[in-house]
Specification:
The structure is a homodimer.
Chain A (H helix, E strand, L loop, with lengths): L2 E4 L3 E7 L2 E8 L1 H10 L4 E8 L4 H8 L3 E9 L4 E6 L8 E6 L19 E4 L4 H10 L5 E5 L2 H6 L1 H8 L4 E5 H8 L4 H10 L4 E5 L5 E5 L2 E5 L13 H14 L6 H19 L12 H15 L2
Parallel strand pairs in A: 1-4, 1-8, 2-6, 4-5, 8-9, 9-10, 10-11
Antiparallel strand pairs in A: 2-3, 6-7, 11-12, 12-13
Helix pairs in contact in A: 1-8, 3-5, 6-7, 8-9, 9-10
Chain lengths: ~300, ~300
């Protein structure tokens, strides 16, 4: 099964109460691809500038990621700088420089057009839609978004939603999108817009999966130490679709396991800055934590 | 197995975005006793004034609750009035009149001194301690508290904690008590103060159980409609200890089931004002929702 991931690659500068990471690898496609790569080969489609360090390129290549779809454009790579306080639920953005990312309008390599699984990470929903149009027969399409697009490209986002198997958003985005105060009602409204399923991410409180006639709740895996929450949502999405891509069937059980796997993968991401921890774990580490998670939540 | 519950009985006036309930039965002991009574006979110890309506007295008696320990004192019953906005996590207290509750200093009836299980609902920790001293050989003691006592009777609360099997608090109270920003670290600090286990209630996000070497996470049971969150925590505690009181052993599995049962019971409490819904359910309703909850959370 082939898995296409389209999103951003950036150079991040992040400050948290536990330290600072200067000019490190970031971006939605980096986190999600590395996470997914533990389960399934990934075809990455993203854009970087000529300043993009070789070491990051080699690192991504080493993580089960095919880089044929990585466009290198003259200019600088997307840069983001942000800061977290003790409440890790929201980053304060200090600066965003789109740089070459402003020109991202990918023409998919031939191979990617045959992708079975597609994750459209958080980028302009118009681009997400245009990418999806190029994929011939996707079996499962997952997309993420953010408050900015809900506000500024609402129509385009609604158009995309009709094409999705799973729409991913966080709790406040679900409420913002639908104007519903209750998360359950917000998710039901989102389902009416087209996606077959909606996953609401609740950060340190876990996640919820909604489909027409059922709900699945998963708590978060408790960590004693969180060093940098950047990329947690993307890592969750990558683990989720990576796990699904290697399943033979999309049974309810497999979908639930995929959500649990996404949750587990996100815990590795937040234990260190950038992809420092997430990029260096083994299949054994993942399975051990997954088993512990099952054990911690079963009653 | 006998179960003693000590706490407040009050007359509440509550306003939520869904309506208003005027002068209805409330109080930590009412919610927790009715909840526990579905699983195990309860001995209730509380105080009311001569104005306490007979219909509430008869109602409690009809719910598997022995009222021998209910003191009726000349004067008025404890009254509380509060309001909730769309964020149900915090009530705005409009007025509190302690009335006869200010003189609550119970001498336990002989029968209650032999209680196996004790739930000390949220009252002055000095009174909680004095009550506990009168119980000869309790097998399991659970106690709840609130921010007011953490601030104003910290020493007394610490004294009580040494005697507890399970200490119950919400997330912000755990942080306030310990000065720890992380819930995990706060719970670990609380364990060092004496209780064998700590349960952190997270409202709509579920609950966490901490013991020396393990953690158990449970999500909340998602409801489409919440009419009045008053008493949710007390109902949770009542379901928890009521379920444990009818278990032959305190295995890890039973404790987890008890927490799940407490979660389920709380959902009935919040679906209507006062004890309107909680007081009128059947064993079948409880089992059905419990099974649904297991089904919703298993992966």
């Amino acid at each position: 099964m082939s898995l296409l991931i389209v999103g951003s690659i950036g150079i991040d500068t992040v400050k948290t109460p536990f330290g600072k990471a200067d000019s490190v690898l970031g971006g939605s496609a980096s986190y999600s691809s590395v996470s997914a790569g533990y389960f399934s080969p990934v075809d990455l489609v993203a854009i970087v500038g000529t300043d993009f360090p070789d070491e990051y390129r080699f690192f991504l290549e080493s993580k089960n990621i095919d880089m044929e779809g990585l466009i290198t454009k003259k200019g600088k790579t997307f840069r983001w700088s942000g800061e977290y306080g003790w409440d890790f639920s929201d980053a304060k953005t200090l600066s965003t420089k789109l740089n070459v990312f402003a020109q991202f309008d990918p023409v998919l390599p031939e191979k990617c057009k045959n992708a079975d699984h597609v994750f459209l990470a958080n980028i302009d929903p118009e681009i997400q839609y245009k990418v999806l149009q190029q994929v011939k027969k996707p079996k499962l399409v997952l997309a993420d978004t953010m408050n900015f697009w809900i506000e500024n490209k609402n129509k385009e986002l609604r158009k995309l939603l009709k094409k999705l198997d799973i729409f991913l958003c966080n709790e406040s985005e679900a409420r913002q999108f639908t104007g519903e105060g209750s998360t359950v009602k917000a998710a039901r409204s989102l389902l009416k817009l087209g996606p077959k399923k909606v996953i609401v991410k609740k950060g340190e409180h876990g996640a919820l999966l909604f489909s027409d006639h059922s709900v699945f709740c998963i708590p978060a895996f408790l960590l004693e130490t969180i060093h940098d929450p950047t990329g947690a949502g993307d890592t969750f999405a990558g683990g989720l679709i990576g796990y699904l891509a290697q399943c033979k069937k999309y049974t309810r059980q497999n979908l639930r396991k995929a959500i649990a796997m996404g949750t587990i993968m996100a815990t590795f991401a937040v234990e260190d800055f950038s992809l420092n921890k997430l990029g260096g774990i083994s299949a054994g580490d993942i399975n051990k934590r997954f088993k512990k998670f099952q054990e911690l939540t079963c009653f």
